Amino acid sequence: MRQFRRMTRTHCLGVKLLGLTLAFGLSATASAQMMITGAGATFPYPIYSKWFDAYAQVDPSVRFNYQSIGSGGGQKQILAQTVDFGASDGPMSDDNLSKAPAKILHIPTVAGADVVAYNLPGNPALKLDADTIAGIFLGEIKKWNDGKITALNPGVTLPDQEIVVVHRSDGSGTTYIWTDYLSKISSEWKTKVGTNTSVNWPTGIGGKGNEGVAGQIKQTPGALGYVELIYAIQNKMPYVDVKNASGKFVKASLDSITAAMATAQIPEDFRFSITNAPGDNAYPICGATWLLVYQQQKDAIKGKKLVEFLKWAQKDGEKMAKDLDYAPLPEPLQARVLKRINEIKF
User: Fold this and answer.
1) How far from each other are the two terminal CA atoms of the chain, in whole angstroms?
2) For residue 250, with 0-12 CB atoms within 10 Å meaning exposed, 13-18 middle and 19 or more buried, which class applies?
3) Hey, what's the torsion of the CAs at 44, 47, 49, 50, to 10 degrees?
4) 18-77 pLDDT tens trace
5) pTM, 2 dp
């Protein structure tokens, strides 16, 4: 009996020691995990979230903390070096790049589309052209039954109701794509408002992030605004077919984004625009999105991990794009981007 008690005490002690060892091991693993921080664009947030989750299975030693605060915020934070990478749907301007303490690289990831979403009784299918969209956002077309809108939509009964224009209130790459498009198709817009991540809006109410604009449109009868395609799909919001540069009405889709992307002239620094692209099948309000990283990484270990992730994103992450209604980069461009990633020093 005494021997049995001694064996039991020994067994319990062993279990406790094993438990402590496991607990210590888990604690050590948790503390050993490296946190890589990023901030910026809301446009690619759905696919970046998927990438970060998937990459945790590839390299469990790394975790990502990404704040979806808008492209303007992403550019500011990478300039201030408060994050390991920024994210933007508009390329950084020469002026902004000149403020950087060191060389910043633009790493394009995927392409998407801004869509014109709306909230009307019954949500009828609608078509708009460039002049009408510009007129609405300039505050010159004020009602849904305006003759310019009804002429484009024969057979659709539109209400005698004010159009509540909704736009972004924060610095935003989605806004950059939107205003880049409007500046190309409207000389009045280009002169009065221009292209930027944040502008002085002639009319409308603001929402923060794609999420905020989508929410404002859904809860405001008569509202119309621009959101990234996936946010419209996720929120089951109707969005218009837009007349493109070739005179064809096109709905935003993976195919029409890819058609626009195929026409892009990509410069050496990867800062490019694909709004108002030529081609019958090209959706006219498309844009790429970029990760912003310093060519010379301050932290060698973190820099190495960041580069490994960027290479994985180009090779494997791109394969996830279509499931989330983003267009992956064309393979020749992927090859060029991988070469650029190899230029990052750590």
Assistant:
1) 65
2) buried
3) 180
4) 343 333 343 334 446 899 999 999 889 999 999 999 999 999 999 999 999 989 999 999
5) 0.81
